Amino acid sequence: DADVTQTPRNRITKTGKRIMLECSQTKGHDRMYWYRQDPGLGLRLIYYSFDVKDINKGEISDGYSVSRQAQAKFSLSLESAIPNQTALYFCATSRGFNNEQFFGPGTRLTVL
Amino acid sequence: DAKTTQPTSMDCAEGRAANLPCNHSTISGNEYVYWYRQIHSQGPQYIIHGLKNNETNEMASLIITEDRKSSTLILPHATLRDTAVYYCIVSHLPYGQNFVFGPGTRLSVLP
Q1: What does residue B81 show for φ and ψ, rounded to 5 degrees?
Q2: In chain B, which residues have their Cβ closer than 8 Å to the Cβ of A106?
Q3: Which residues touch B108 (CB under 8 Å, ≥6 apart)?
Q4: If phi over 0 gives left and psi between -120 and 50 gives alpha, with beta otherwise, what is residue B28?
Q5: A88 touches chain B (CB under 8 A)
Q6: Does residue A55 register a pLDDT over 80?
Q7: What angle do CA B83, B87, B90 make, to 5 degrees?
Q8: How many Å apart are CA B39 and CA A31, to the nearest integer?
Q9: Looking at the predicted structure, is the pLDDT value of residue A64 above 60?
Q10: Cα distance between residue A103 and residue A45, in whole Å
Q11: What confidence tens digit (pLDDT) does each residue in B38-64 have?
């Protein structure tokens, strides 16, 4: 089984809808991250969490929110989806003072 | 964190060494150099990191210049499966919030 899983893997939604992307990990890592990737570009950090209930904004947090209710789970919400949020979303984990991040397989989100 | 500059793309013949350069001229003394790669649209994969000494693991070698202003990732015997986008990242430990994945270098390993 994969160490970092993301659900759903693909999602098509409409403008204005609320959508949640889920990330789960079995690595026992304390730190979790959400990134987005637009075509032909690198990854940009949306939010990160160093522990349960700890939430920190990344480079592009506007229009997104997150929840970390358990160490193994980190969810990303789009409160009111808009077309320019169409992207590939990745969750990642790391342990303590270590930037070796382990990435999930990604969620391809399309907002029509 | 320091900004990095990488070539947009490179080709390498299968079986030969692939040498991927990265410039990070504004790197500060406590910043590490990380390398990740992304195969197609999969999640990025950690390769190696270092501070000032050269590092080697089962995947690659990392050569950091003495002034630390540039580095080279070496894949000693590139295979077709090494075709990917390679990202060079400079970051403090443990501040992952400043982990910036730029556009990277697209390496094509040719048969």
Answers
A1: -75, -10
A2: 41-43
A3: B9, B10, B11, B12, B83
A4: beta
A5: yes
A6: yes
A7: 160
A8: 24
A9: yes
A10: 13
A11: 999 899 999 999 999 899 999 999 999
Question: In this structure, which amino acid lies at residue A98?
Answer: N
Residue-level pLDDT at B29 = 85
Tell if the CB–CB gap between A56 and B103 is shorter than 8 Å: no
Three state DSSP letters for chain B: CCCCECCCEEEEECCCCEEEEEECCCCCCCEEEEEEEECCCCCCEEEEEECCCCEECCCCEEEECCCCCEEEEEECCCCHHHCEEEEEEEEECCCHHHCCCCCCEEEEEEC
Helix (H) or strand (E) holding A31: strand A31-37
CB A89 within 8 A of CB A107: yes
Q: Is B30 on the interface with A (CB under 8 A)?
A: no
B69: left (phi over 0), alpha (psi -120 to 50) or beta: alpha
Q: φ, ψ for residue B109 (rounded to 5)?
A: -95, 120
- C-beta of residue B35 within 8 angstroms of C-beta of residue B96: no
Q: Three-state DSSP class for A84?
A: helix
Residue B1 has pLDDT above 70, yes or no: no
For strands B61-64 and B70-75, give the pairing. antiparallel
